[in-house]
Design goal:
There is one protein chain. By secondary structure, this protein is an alpha+beta fold. Helices cover 43% and strands 13% of the residues. The protein contains 19 helices and 14 strands. A hairpin with a 5-residue loop joins β7 and β8.
Length: 581
Amino acid sequence: MPVSPEAVRDYRRELTEGEDVIDPATWSGSVPQAYGVAPRVRIGRDRWFNLLWLLPLGFLALIIAVAAAKQLRALGPVQRFIHDHPGTILVARSMRMDGLPAWLGWQHFLNLFLMIFIIRSGIQIIGDHPRLYWTRHSTPGRDWFRVQRPVPSDPLWTAKKDSIALPGQVGLPGLRHSIGLARWWHLGVGTLWLLNGLVFYLLLFTTGQWRLVVPTSWDVFPDAASALIQYVSLDWPTGPAWVNYNSLQQLSYFTTAFLAAPLALLTGLGMSPALSTRFRWISKPVSIQAARSLHFLVLVWFLVFIVAHIALVFTTDLQRNLNQMYAARGGNGGTGLWIFLASMAVVIAGWIAATPFTLRHPRAVQRAGYALIGPAQRLFEHVDAKPGEYTEKDISPYFWHNGQYPDSPEYRRLYDGNFADYKLHIHGLVDNPVELDLRQLRALPHHEQITQHFCIQGWSGVAKWGGVSMRTILDLVKPNPEAKWVVFYSLGDGPDKGRYYDAHPIEQMSHHLTMLAYDMNGQPLSFGHGAPLRLRNEVQLGFKQIKWIQGIEFVADFSRIGGGHGGYNPDHEFFGYRQSL
């Protein structure tokens, strides 16, 4: 039936704009700054190993390794092995380059400077869902790594409640459930890091410097073993590092530059809802959770590499190493040391300033992040995936709850009445505004799909959704040409009060996998999962799959709706209105 003027509610009046400066005390509905536990890895079915034990165990193992290496070096066969494989494969004199170029020093500094923001924001992102899995199902008790206590038995426990806070100078920005800002730092600075890497590859192969880091002989492996024995025995391998790295250095640099860095990019893209939904031949064997776990292990590699690299630079001939790395010269002068100290001052200043700057200027971080990553997100969100990737046997045994549950008298009345009086209001720039009750919605052509949910926090789950395709809704209401966005209004409020809403591009409403769901896994939606009606738009992250829908408005733009940023979370918690990555 048509929407009467009395039935159309002015949802916009119930929206709130959000703040442009963060007060940690009131952040995200005054969510308490709860901290997690020491990192733990699952051993077997039910036992967990506290990784802090690696500190004393690692120190003990190092002592044993040093003692064993010294004994090995006293053996004749090992001495002959080191003689035959001294640890460094010399480049032919005709192919040697004239030392390390200045551009490599700048690349080294930029890489370090960008990595501190990527790592800190990455740790913050992990803290928003502090568990890792190998299967696409984020089932409690099936995680292999966690920095949080076991999931409570509360049936309405949410992923937001499961998040943890981090110290302000460890995570970025350090507040609990600040993943919106952390992602802008991570994806935005990550884009600059990738551009820096492309410049590095270009200069590396056009100047011939690739010979320093790309192995060209199988002898690199025995020579690396020889170098390792020399390092562990505390008798450092010696050689012309100005011309050649030893083989252990070469393998570690090659692994970092040509294996770990590309893997960081690929596993990051593997967590994209748009790409994973479209490219099934990748997402089927390597699920979002496998990609997330591998992405974390790449982070671990980078951390281990950085610690080992710094330790060896400082212990093997500091001034010579710094001259090579920062001053593009050999010898033991002090130029490299002074340049290094100046660069460290910049790095430390950036480290210290990042969190307070983010809290004082979150909109600037949001805009800068979107400027850097937005073009890629706009490209990927045009992907229109087809149904059929999953079957009923793929449905997840557990599907996390999330969001601020509705608690208004209106919702309680509707819920208690089994939604008999529920009406969905569809209005705005349409030729045929309507209001539909659940009976009328169920009478429309039925649409069903089995798809994977991608939460911005990191968890995922597969479910079967039943309801009405948004294509059917478009045919029913006939949007005007001026309508470019579709705004969904919830019966529930956000954590900072004010009605929850979100805007979606109208082109995505005609996608195969965009629908209004009233059933989940063959049953009517539960309270926690969005009863009576929720959105499914499978190229977007979970926070845009708005639950408890009461109204839909077709608009030309969203600049005057709420805070003008495209949704409650973009207004209040600085998420993006486009989130296909």
